[in-house]
Design brief:
single chain; 427 residues; alpha/beta; Aspartate Aminotransferase, domain 2; Aspartate Aminotransferase, domain 1; five-stranded mixed sheet; 15 helices; 12 strands; binds pyridoxal-5'-phosphate
Length: 427
């Protein structure tokens, strides 16, 4: 049946194994599942209590009516509250970010919105980097205001002093309670300094805690670890690299036990936890996460270098192409990123017509939104993923008619370069 909780368990403390070595076994006990080497899909809505007393015990812990006794693990009650596929997945997700706990959701958007809503109240102000994922942008600007939550944005390259003085001049500095950062930003790959955001947070909020969340979808969980740089939350669209096969929508948030407990409690009442089948798919995906991401990154480096010298390409946005000349970005990249990732965007010489010709000419690279999957994908942010964002903002951030975004997959890199090359020839 279930497994032992990891919190402080010897299994974890004694480990010298790397996360990729633990992904096949951590948190799962075959002897509780007929010896099955793989965690079965616990396709069940509810769990049988051995006695009424046990049911009472389980509920007392689940509802926080008493603290857990030493060595006691939360019992399985009902799959909206807990399920072995989710619990084991959450334990494994903590390993990459070295987090105390994690919570998984049925989408990246529910991970983001549940975390924001748990830590923001009417009258509070959210500070966020810009640009952010289109769905996040919509939630911040069209949904949070309905609950009396305002927002202030800043852009990559703005110094901490400028951000702080702008927030203070707005008269809202004391009401800032949450900072949401996306780095590298989608689709432009601009970098934001997480540690600097922590320091900004510490100077706002009138002495109250200002929570810092990083949407780590673009480089995590392998290549960027926001908690290490002072973030309270590392948030994922697990639909992307973690799922990695374009066959599941899911999300996750990692952080301290104390904060994730609050997120999970709120999740219980919103009812947006992932189901057992999603949990099982992600457990399977995690086993190959490192090999997939490493191959994708190697391929992306080659693709970015090819594009960078192509006459029909004006400009390439890829962290691997940042040089010392761009001092701010260079310093952030070296401090915070372990690899440049597998997302590349670039300006085709021309405009929408030329970008569309390129996209329509691709043969092996699929024309689709989403990212981080085994297959390479290409899309046009201006008319697709970012069509709902303020057009003026889009122009300001370089999300223009000529921008194309590529998510590089695990295909043979010569085939990818051939495809991009022949599609550019059609332009
Ligand atoms: C896809 C994505 C999201 C939203 O995740 P879903 O799983 O689609 O809900 C959030 N942030 C980023 C950076 C994304 O790429």
């Amino acid at each position: 049946m279930s497994k032992k909780k990891n919190n402080g368990s010897p299994e974890r403390d004694a480990r010298s194994f790397r996360p990729e070595s633990m992904m096949m076994s951590y948190g799962y006990k075959p002897e509780l599942s007929e010896g099955a080497i793989k965690c079965p899909i616990f396709q069940t809505s509810t769990f049988v209590f051995q006695s009424a007393e046990e049911g009472k015990d389980f509920f007392e812990v689940a509802y926080g009516l008493r603290e857990k006794r030493a060595g006691e693990s939360p019992g399985l009650i009902y799959s909206r509250i807990n399920n072995p596929d989710l619990e084991i997945l959450e334990d494994r997700l903590t390993l990459w970010d070295n987090a105390e706990d994690a919570a998984v959701f049925e989408s990246g958007m529910s991970a983001i919105t549940t975390t924001m809503l748990e830590f923001l109240n009417p009258g509070d102000v959210l500070l966020h980097s810009s640009p952010v994922y289109g769905g996040t942008d919509h939630f911040i600007h069209h949904i949070l205001p309905r609950f009396g939550i305002e927002s202030i944005s800043f852009v990559a390259g703005e110094s901490s002093e400028t951000i702080l003085s702008r927030v203070k001049e707005s008269g809202k500095a004391d009401r800032v309670r949450f900072i949401h950062v996306e780095t590298p930003a989608n689709p432009t790959n601009t970098l934001i300094d997480i540690e600097a955001c922590r320091k900004i947070g510490d100077q706002l909020g009138n002495g109250e805690k200002v929570y810092l969340a990083v949407d780590n979808t673009y480089l995590g969980p392998l290549w960027q670890h926001p908690l290490k740089h002072g973030a309270d939350f590392s948030i994922y669209s697990a639909t992307k690299y973690i799922g990695g096969h374009s066959d599941v929508i899911a999300g996750a948030v990692c952080g301290s036990s104390e904060l994730i407990k609050r997120v999970k409690t709120f999740r219980t009442f919103l009812g947006n936890m992932a189901g057992p089948w999603t949990g099982w798919l992600l457990l399977r995906s995690l086993e190959t996460l490192k090999v997939r991401m490493e191959q994708q990154c190697e391929n992306a480096k080659t693709v970015a270098n090819f594009l960078n010298v192509h006459p029909k390409v004006e400009r390439v946005n890829y962290p691997g192409l940042i040089t010392e000349k761009n001092q701010v970005a260079w310093e952030i990249f070296n401090k915070q990123c372990d690899a440049p990732g597998a997302m590349v965007s670039f300006d085709v010489v021309g405009g929408e017509k030329e970008a569309f010709t390129f996209l329509n000419s691709l043969q092996i690279i699929k024309l689709a939104v989403s990212l981080g999957s085994t297959e390479s994908l290409a899309e046009h942010p201006y008319t697709m993923t970012h069509a709902g964002c303020d057009p003026e903002h889009n122009q300001k951030f370089g999300i223009t008619e000529k921008l194309v975004r590529l998510s590089v997959g695990v295909e043979n890199v010569d085939d990818l370069v051939w495809d991009i090359s022949q599609a550019l020839d059609q332009v």
